[in-house]
Batch of 3 targets.
Target 1
Amino acid sequence: MNNLLKKIICALLACLMCVSAVMCFTGCGCNDDKSKDGNKSSGPGYVVPTTEPDLKDDNFGFYIINSKELMLTRYYGKGGKVEIPAEFQGYKISIIGHSVFNARDVEEVVLPDTVTEIQDYAFSGNKALKSAKLSKNLKIIGINAFFNCQALQSIELPATLKEIGSYAFCATGLTKVTIPESNTLSELPQFCFFQCASLKEVTIPVTITKIPKDCFKECPQD
């Protein structure tokens, strides 16, 4: 009887060890994902949102966000003047993706009014960028979005803005800045206009209640 009991206990322990091993390998609560062709993915059991183009033409690549919207994720052009379309193949373009135009020799950019967000580093490093026409419905400007755009002397910020990222206009050639009076934007971020060596005129409405000490650090009037 003792031998039989020992065998039963050993079997139970072995089963528990197998179950633990399976949980370790499969992860905690993760599901097996499928690729777009319907086959099981060979990747890990978690989802990393991709920004690889689902749709594209000669100039742009787009990632499908949902049944109505696209994110611009690739630029195949040669720089110069860039006019982003409002729609593509029945979808509206609502987001300019991360680093899309980073150091791409863009001199002028026109955003459609369908765009509500410019993600981090979207136009950074375009030292020849002289003009940027923003969407009238823009809500978010990401971190370092226009960093080091040295030729950018002026830009009109829309009253729809809710958020501006740190270093958004750092090291640009801005000579004057007007922050719009808005019910949605109440504070400016750290280092927003850091090292804007030509910035001499700043207009800030009473709706802005928080301005970090380093927001305009190393500007002429600092």
Note: The chain is about 10% helix and 20% strand.
Target 2
Amino acid sequence: MLNHVALTVKVPRSQVQTWDAIVDWQSQSNWMLQTTVWVTSEQVEGVGTSIEAFTGPLHRIYPRMKWLGLLDLMRVTLWEPPVRCDVIHYGKILKGSGTFRVEEIDASRSLFHWSEDIEAPRPVFLLVKPFLLIGVKISLARFVRQLE
């Protein structure tokens, strides 16, 4: 069953600046809560780019103690700069899709829309959803702060 979550934040940067900051995959480690992100393909942008992210309390020492977190395997499936990037999650545990969308407000402000469709039994998803939303809200607030 697919379960949908989505959040939006206002960013004090242009659409292009916001896009550039979002798709700088490795810098996501600076704002995503307890997460280290890296590109695993030679290609660093566009359809086909492969990205991995490890989330957990000891993310900085991954892969030691990898059992204390979640490894998210992703591949870019849609690339429409500076508007939209879709990924597929194809790991052992996390499966589904995600979308980053950047909407222009004016020349110096934009909206960052983050959404995920996660494959999971509904009861399991309902248990983890509050923690997922809190983590993403904190991460998006950190993203906005880094661009202020």
Note: The longest strand covers residues 95-106.
Target 3
Amino acid sequence: SFRWFITSDGHFVVGGRDATSNDVIVKKHANKGDLVFHTEMPGSGFFVLKPKSPDTEFSPDAKMQTAVACATFSRAWQRGLGSVLAYSVFPEQLRKELGLPKGTFMVHGKREYYTVSPSLAIGITPDGEVMSGPRTAVAVHCATHMILDRGDSKPSDIAKKFQQKLREF
């Protein structure tokens, strides 16, 4: 399965959860016109920002939100890092070269860099879907949402609290 969210201005973003899903994201879901995001630190998922329509340009907010998601779902969250360096490239700049392990790609050419702070919210869309991503995106699309901060809680404990809070709404 994949991570996903919708940027505040309506672009779809899909991200990998592990090496296998990273391979699938880049090889099957990254198309011409998309932007692919990753962090400079190992252990990050690839995130693909997809345009609303073929001729749509990405806003700075959409790029930043995707970079934030990429950083948030990397090891940076677990390590408690306050800022992370993420970058974006075009799909055609990524190549699977001989000897690279699953989920890893060689990046060729120029990268656009973003210094971002991990930020996470979880909410329920009007369609009843659970969406997680940057606070600035989730708050726009989910009237019912929670902002998560880093701490010592286990993810399973946080998920139980979220379910309990949803029942209250």
Note: The first helix runs from residue 19 to 29.
